[in-house]
Write a structure and sequence with these properties.
alpha/beta, Rossmann fold, 2 domains, 6-stranded parallel β-sheet, 14 helices, glycosyltransferase, EC 2.4.99.24, Glyco_trans_9, LPS_LOS_Heptosyltrfase, ADP-heptose-lipopolysaccharide heptosyltransferase activity
Length: 353
C-alpha cells in the first residue's frame, strides 16, 4: 500500500507526458487535476520534441523539458544523460502518464523518491505509487483512464476539461496567412484533415474528403483549408485537385503551434481519428470524425460539438496500422454520410445557440 501524498509537501513535480499529439491533448484534463491538487508546486512536463510544442506555453505547466530520443538522449548513454539532468532538478514526485517501462526507468535513475503510474509494461516494481489499470473498463475513454489513475491517489479536479493555449501573436500570424490565401475575417472556414500519423488503416479516402468538403462549402458558402503533416502532402494535393473551387492547402507547411492556431480559426472540421482531430475538439471547433480501425469508445473527440461517423463491420476496431483485408470499415463510409452528419450537427448547434 503506497503512502498517501500530502499536497503541501510536494513542491517539484515531473510529469512524463505521452508521445502522440492526440494522446497529449487527452492528457490535459489530467494536467489540470495535477495543477489543482498541487497549486503551490512547480510542474515540469517531460515530452518528445513534437509534443513539447503543444505545451509551449501552457497555463498548467511551468516548464517543458524535451526528451530528445533521436538526439542527445538516444540509447543507453542518452537515457543516463537525461536521468542525470533530471536528478539535478531534485523532483519530489514523478507522475508517469506514459505507460512504457522507459518512463519508470528514467524516473528511478533520476532519483525521484515518489514515482506514480500504471503498472503496465512490467514496470510495477519501479513505482512507489502503482495503479492496476486492469481494474478499469477497457472501453473507458483515454481522458477518464488517466483521471481514474490519478484519482486513485487523491489527485482530482473540480472540472474536467481539455485545454490548449495560444498567444495572440500566433492568432494574428494565422489571420495574415489566411488572408494571403483568400480567407478574410468573417469567412466561414471548413478544415479538412485527411491524414493520420499512426497508419493508413485510419485514413478515409481523399476523394471522399474532397466531395464532402465541396458540398458543405457550397451549402454554407464556406472556404476550405486542407491540413496534413509532411508525409501527407500528396494526399492533400489529391484533395486540392479534386475540389471544384480553390482551397488553402497548408499540408506540410505548419509547425505544431501554427497547426493549433490554424485549427482554432476553423468554424468546422472534418477529420480522421488523429492528433488534429483532438486539437479541434480541445478548441471547441465543431467537427465530424471518421473512425474505422480505431476504437471510437476510447479515443472519440472529447467535445459536445463533435460527432463520430463509422460503420459496424465484423473486423473493426482492429487497432492495426495497415489494413490486412479490404479496408471495409472506411469503404462503407460515404461522402454523403459525412455531409449529413455535419449538417445535422451544425443545425443542432444553431438551435442550442
Amino acid at each position: 500500500m503506497s503512502a498517501p501524498l500530502d499536497p503541501n509537501r510536494v513542491r517539484n513535480i515531473l510529469v512524463r507526458g505521452t508521445n502522440w499529439l492526440g494522446d497529449a491533448v487527452m492528457n490535459t484534463p489530467a494536467l489540470g487535476a495535477i495543477r489543482e491538487t498541487f497549486p503551490k508546486a512547480r510542474i515540469t512536463l517531460l515530452v518528445i520534441p513534437t509534443v513539447a510544442e503543444l505545451f509551449t506555453p501552457h497555463q498548467w505547466v511551468d516548464e517543458v523539458v524535451v526528451y530528445d530520443r533521436k538526439g542527445r538522449h538516444q540509447g543507453i548513454r542518452g537515457r543516463l544523460r537525461l536521468a542525470g539532468e533530471l536528478r539535478r532538478r531534485r523532483f519530489d514526485l514523478a507522475i508517469l502518464l506514459q505507460n512504457a517501462i522507459d518512463a519508470a526507468i528514467i524516473a528511478t535513475l533520476a532519483g525521484i523518491p515518489r514515482r506514480m503510474g500504471t503498472r503496465t509494461d512490467g514496470r510495477g516494481f519501479l513505482l512507489t505509487h502503482g495503479f492496476n489499470q486492469k481494474s478499469l473498463d477497457p472501453r473507458l475513454h483515454h481522458v477518464d483512464y488517466y483521471l481514474e489513475m490519478l484519482g486513485h491517489f487523491g489527485i482530482r479536479a473540480a472540472q474536467k476539461r481539455q485545454l490548449l493555449c495560444l498567444a495572440e501573436e500566433e492568432r494574428a500570424a494565422v489571420r495574415r496567412r489566411f488572408e494571403e490565401g483568400g480567407i478574410v475575417p468573417g469567412d466561414f472556414v471548413i478544415g479538412i484533415n485527411p491524414g493520420a500519423a499512426y497508419g493508413s488503416a485510419k485514413r478515409w479516402y481523399p476523394e471522399r474528403f474532397a466531395a464532402a468538403g465541396a458540398e458543405l462549402a457550397r451549402r454554407w458558402g464556406a472556404k476550405l483549408v486542407v491540413f496534413g503533416g509532411p508525409g501527407e502532402v500528396a494526399i492533400a494535393r489529391d484533395i486540392e485537385a479534386s475540389l471544384e473551387g480553390p482551397c488553402l492547402n497548408l499540408a506540410g507547411t505548419l509547425t505544431v503551434r501554427e497547426l493549433m492556431a490554424s485549427i482554432e480559426r476553423c468554424n468546422f472540421f472534418i477529420s480522421n481519428d488523429s492528433g488534429p482531430m483532438h486539437i479541434a475538439a480541445a478548441f471547441g471547433v465543431p467537427l465530424v470524425a471518421v473512425f474505422g480501425s480505431t476504437d471510437h469508445r476510447t479515443t472519440y473527440p472529447w467535445s459536445d460539438k463533435a460527432v463520430v461517423v463509422r460503420k459496424e463491420v465484423d473486423c473493426a476496431p482492429c487497432l492495426k496500422r495497415e489494413c490486412p483485408t479490404d479496408h471495409r470499415c472506411m469503404k462503407q463510409v460515404t461522402a454523403e454520410d459525412v455531409v449529413q452528419a455535419a449538417v445535422e450537427l451544425q443545425k443542432q448547434l444553431t438551435i442550442e445557440n
